[in-house]
Amino acid sequence: MAKNLIILCILLLHFFALTVASEESDEFFSKKISPLSSLQSFKNEKLTHLHFYFHDIVTAKNPTAVRVVEAAMTNASSTFFGAVSMMDNPLTVAPELSSKMVGRA
């Protein structure tokens, strides 16, 4: 019982130390900026909106995505854990697969 109490005290001490340390440095992982300052930076940059279609073909004569390796329990898993797939999917400018291809993914 005493051993559990000591472990609990150590865990609580670490928790409080981490909480205090995280309050001191709010901008460690992110930085808050005002909307006006972000608008100023966009005036000097040119924005590009990319729009393309990704075609993942798995059940055809020539599939673009195939499973190459699987674990013994992969088919029994609901998440397909252990499966490794390879893909070479076409990227097109329109939803139709016959439209102009702009790349592969």
Question: In words, what does this structure look like?
Answer:
InterPro entries: Dirigent (IPR004265). It is found in: Secreted, Extracellular space, Apoplast. Homodimer. Belongs to the plant dirigent protein family. The chain has 105 residues and is an alpha+beta fold. It has a domain of 59 residues. The protein has 2 helices and 5 strands, in the order ααβββββ. The strands form 2 sheets. Strands 1-4-5 form a 3-stranded antiparallel sheet, with no helix packed on it. The chain has a two-stranded antiparallel sheet with strand order 2-3. It is flat and about 70 Å long. The termini are far apart.
Overall helicity: 25-40%
What's the gyration radius in Å?
A: 26 Å
Sheet with the most strands: spatial strand order: 1-4-5
Q: What fraction strand?
A: 15-25%
Shape estimate = flat
The main sheet comes to:
3 strands, antiparallel
The N- to C-terminal Cα distance equals: 58 Å
Q: What order do the SSEs take from the amino end to the carboxyl end, as H and E? A: HHEEEEE
Q: Structural class of the helices, strands and pairings?
A: alpha+beta
Stretches with pLDDT under 50, minimum 5 residues: none
Secondary structure: number of strands? 5
Count helical runs: 2
> Mean pLDDT, as a whole number?
78
Subcellular location: Secreted, Extracellular space, Apoplast
GO cellular component, one term: apoplast
Protein name: Dirigent protein
Family: Belongs to the plant dirigent protein family.
In short:
By secondary structure, this protein is α+β, with helices and mostly antiparallel strands. It has helices at residues 2-24, 35-43, and strands at 53-54, 65-69, 84-87, 90-92, 101-104. Strands 1-4-5 form a three-stranded antiparallel beta sheet, with no helix packed on it.
